[in-house]
Design goal:
Helices cover 73% and strands 0% of the residues. By secondary structure, the protein is mainly alpha-helical.
Length: 265
């Protein structure tokens, strides 16, 4: 029962934070330490339940994903072109992630490193929001290969737990000329292939840690993260129509300060 409750709590945290610029991995690491749910197996569990959040985006943007299977003459982000664009976005982080996977798991999965990443990412968000930018891309169909690759390079920052993949890709898109709402929407869609790759790679490396009795716990975390992510994405889209990313930066700074000064030794 304790494991099921942990899965529910972590599933909620994963779903609510995965697509917001606050770092789901960072929150899961912090929550795992507070709940004494740590270690190699716990870290892999946290990665695997991301699939629930991924599925929520796939369902929400199902028309766009189905469009990748067959080119639509009225949509430039479709068919082979859409797949190539996503490939350009995923390639940098996938390559760097494979090369640094072990080091990241060993040295960066701790409260202090997460708090530092939260703070650095918060400052970056405030800087980007303060800059004057010329919007050159407004819809998914406007995305160019250069923009897709540039967002992919920024996505490498998310390999530092606590920085946030969403924050990295949204800020990258905005800096490269994407409208804020487009940067967020493309961040959601581009998350699917890179997160699927990361989850598959992590499971390949750690499947031997799990037993049959763990399947229920994984299933609970998966389902809970799906519904939490659905609600979070819907709310985030509505919020971006009314405000900037600054509130998320303030939250990140507050959380980083709390971890630095009040985290239990």
């Amino acid at each position: 029962m304790d494991q099921i409750l942990s899965a529910i709590v972590l599933g909620i945290i994963e779903g609510l934070t995965e697509f917001l610029p606050v770092s789901s991995t960072g929150h899961l690491i912090l929550a795992g330490h507070l709940m004494r749910f740590t270690g190699e197996k716990a870290a892999s569990f946290e990665v695997i339940i991301q699939l629930g959040a991924i599925l929520a985006v796939v369902v929400m943007y199902r028309d766009r994903f189905l469009g990748l299977l067959r080119a639509n003459p009225y949509q430039r982000f479709s068919g082979l072109r859409g797949i190539v664009l996503l490939g350009l976005t995923c390639a940098p982080a996938a390559l760097v992630g494979i090369l640094t996977h072990k080091a990241i798991k060993t040295y960066l999965f701790g409260p202090t490193t997460v708090a530092l990443a939260l703070a650095v990412g918060a400052v970056a968000i405030l800087v980007v929001e303060a800059m004057r930018r010329r919007v050159r891309f407004e819809t998914l169909d406007d995305i160019s290969p250069a923009l897709a690759l540039g967002v992919g390079v920024f996505q490498c920052l998310s390999l530092w737990p606590g920085f946030s993949r969403s924050a990295a890709t949204i800020m990258g898109g905005m800096l490269l000329g994407a409208k804020r709402s487009l940067a967020a929407e493309y961040s959601f869609i581009a998350a699917v292939p890179i997160m699927c790759l990361a989850t598959a790679y992590d499971f390949y490396k750690s499947y031997h840690l799990f037993e049959t009795g763990d399947l229920l716990v994984l299933a609970v975390g998966f389902v809970v993260s799906f519904f939490a992510a659905w609600a979070a994405v819907k709310g985030f889209i509505l919020l971006l129509g009314r405000t900037t990313l600054r509130p998320f930066a303030c939250y990140r700074l507050a959380l980083a300060v709390a971890v630095f000064f009040f985290w239990p030794a």
